[in-house]
Design goal:
Layout: H1 7-27, E1 39-45, H2 52-62, E2 68-72, E3 79-84, H3 89-102, E4 112-117, H4 122-147, H5 153-177, H6 186-218
Helix pairs in contact: 1-5, 2-3, 4-5, 5-6
């Protein structure tokens, strides 16, 4: 990232993507993955071995139009949880009857329990990362400022900061525009982009330093 032939064009494209992302966000809500938006968890306690494929078949028959995720609760393979984006009382009743019939349960009131999982806010996802990122950023800026002092401390820090902010904004906008579900991998991807931009920028500064030293030797 030492030299960009048309930096203005690249930043213009980035600004356009960000603006489109803001418009999309304003019109439609952020698309969260099932685990991060409000949904219903159905805990199924069978007390006996079950076949996951059978449970999936039952769930698909009852909640055919909903997003579904499955997770084993116990290590004894006798219970699991079924996460459903939404369900009605009728669907729940049908699900209980099918499970009761399939596994010959006497009753399902205590064997099948539902819990409403609240919506996970973006600020809750970001919160654990705020302090570590701030500390890391300060250390990086201090290093960059000292290491590349000859290139202009304010310039090198300013360019790095601008690239980080723009790249993260573009990433967020692409996620919104493409309607990519925000979930467990969103923050790791954001951190990866942060690291990638930082490393490439520093590599560019190193090349500038080397070039400057060569020019000084020739003089």
């Amino acid at each position: 990232m030492e030299k960009i032939k048309n930096p203005k064009i690249i930043y213009l494209i980035a600004v356009m993507i960000i603006l489109v992302g803001m418009i999309v966000t304003g019109i439609w809500k952020t698309n969260f993955s099932l685990d991060y938006k409000e949904h219903t968890r159905i805990d199924v306690y069978l007390g006996k071995d079950y076949n996951l494929e059978d449970m999936k078949q039952i769930a698909k028959e009852v909640f055919s139009k909903e997003k579904i995720r499955y997770k084993e609760i116990e290590t004894f393979h006798d219970s699991l949880s079924v996460h459903v984006s939404s369900l009605t009382e009728e669907q729940l009743g049908t699900f209980k009857e099918k499970v009761k019939e399939k596994y010959e349960l006497e009753e399902t009131d205590n064997s099948i329990v539902t819990t409403t999982i609240p919506h996970y806010r973006i600020r809750d996802m970001v919160k654990p990362y705020i302090i570590p990122i701030i500390i890391a950023t300060i250390l990086i800026f201090v290093y960059v400022g000292i290491r590349y002092l000859n290139l202009g401390v304010y310039k090198v820090i300013g360019v790095l900061l601008l690239r980080i902010v723009v790249s993260e904004a573009v990433l967020a906008s692409i996620i919104e525009i493409a309607r990519i579900p925000v979930g467990i991998y969103t923050m790791p991807v954001g951190i990866f982009v942060y690291m990638l931009v930082t490393v490439l920028t520093v590599v560019g500064y190193e090349k500038q330093i080397s070039k400057k030293k060569e020019e000084e030797k020739k003089k």
